[in-house]
Amino acid sequence: MDSACVETVGPPSLPRLFLSFLRLGTTAFGGPAMVAYIRRMAVERNKWLDDATFRDGVALCQTIPGATAMQTAAYVGLRARGVWGAAVAFSGFGMPAFCFMCILSFLYARTHDLPLALAAFHGLRAITVAIVAYATLSFGRVSLRRSADIFIAALAAVLFALRVNPILVILLAALAGLVLYRQATPKPQATTEPAVPVGSRGPLPPLLLGVLVAFALLFVANRGLFDLAILMFRIDLFAFGGGFASVPLMYHEIVDVRSWMDNATFMNGIALGQVTPGPIVITATFVGYWLHGILGAIVATAGIFLPSFLMVVGVVPYYDRLRASAHFNRCISGILSSFVGLLLSVTIQFGLDVPWDVPRIVLAGAALAALLLKVEVLWVVLAGLAVSMVIL
């Protein structure tokens, strides 16, 4: 057998697991699209788990809040080597994005007032509108299939435009889904559950205790960092629908509620997040660096990713029971529909902040067209950056 096709058989060592996901994380552009590459590495090449088990994990990661690709990495690590495997796979996959974003945040803090940098970021704001608009269209095509879906999305858009707290909007959407999708029935699910390595079951209480101790120490040491960590933790806890779902929540809390940064700076952070590998929630690293330097970047990143990790580790042993529940499925359907409305509201808000002229309209239109044609977002952003520095 060709060694290039199958690198290893059986459970990997923890260092190998970490390095494998670290290498994959350096090219993790495209967000959820990276799930296919994780499958190729974990299922086809290395045989760490079978295809059916992997598909169950992807379904789980699409159901619970958080960045899907990051959670899929944790799931593979959990199935392969238990909780420690989940931790090293999760951290290895996310570390390149964190490092790149710290470097970009450092450069942004020192160059964003220069004429060339200003031109670049003025163009990137127009591209950011196109990126969020594309996310809205993509979510809409997948999530809005019934009249009830459209109603919940429209209601969420109105409530978000009225500055209603997004977490309250999510809870109302879950309640609406419970009521409006009464005729929906869950698909038949398998009653058997793939084996999980020893040490994977029941790890949540000690992990939660460790998180509580860390938050308590942070509260005593630095209240500003504690507030940042709690905020990011809460945002990810309600980010149903993948990493992009965190954008409206983060925007509302950081720009509207707390005024920690202005709209333009936050949009620039999103643009920087698009030229780094990893999920869009890496914008949290930019926010943390902007507010508290490198320590803030570390705290914000840990806060935004911890719920995703804890939910994968805690929910996997009980997922079959959850996804067989009609009530659970109806609530999740309502929440996913609401995020289309939230993203639509953010698209409009971002659009209102851009000083539109003919070059920016053309730039945004070209970026949206390229994304609709399945051009990788990295190339769209880099091309837009180059064009902005020339024409703006």
Q: What's the total number of strands?
A: 0
Total helical elements = 16
Summarize the helix and strand pattern as letters: HHHHHHHHHHHHHHHH
From the alpha carbons, calculate the radius of gyration and give it in angstroms: 21 Å
Taken from the alpha-carbon principal axes, the silhouette is: globular
Q: What does the largest sheet look like?
A: none
**Mean pLDDT over the full residue set:** 82
Distance between the termini: 55 Å
Number of domains: 1
Helices and strands: which structural class? mainly alpha
Unreliable spans? 1-8, 185-194
The percent range for helix content is over 70%
Bin the strand percentage: under 5%
Describe what this molecule looks like in 3D:
The chain is mostly helical and 392 residues long. It has one domain. The protein is 75% helix and 0% strand. Helix 8 runs antiparallel to helix 9.
Question: How are the secondary structure elements laid out?
Answer:
Blueprint: H1 14-25, H2 34-45, H3 51-63, H4 68-111, H5 115-143, H6 147-161, H7 166-180, H8 204-221, H9 223-237, H10 246-257, H11 263-274, H12 283-315, H13 319-323, H14 326-353, H15 358-372, H16 377-391
Helix pairs in contact: 1-4, 2-4, 3-4, 4-12, 5-11, 5-14, 5-15, 5-16, 6-7, 6-14, 7-14, 8-9, 9-10, 9-12, 15-16
Which features would summarize this protein structure in a list?
globular, mainly alpha, 392 residues
Briefly, what is this?
This protein is mostly helical and 392 residues long. The protein is built from 16 helices and no strands. The radius of gyration is 21 Å and the shape is globular.
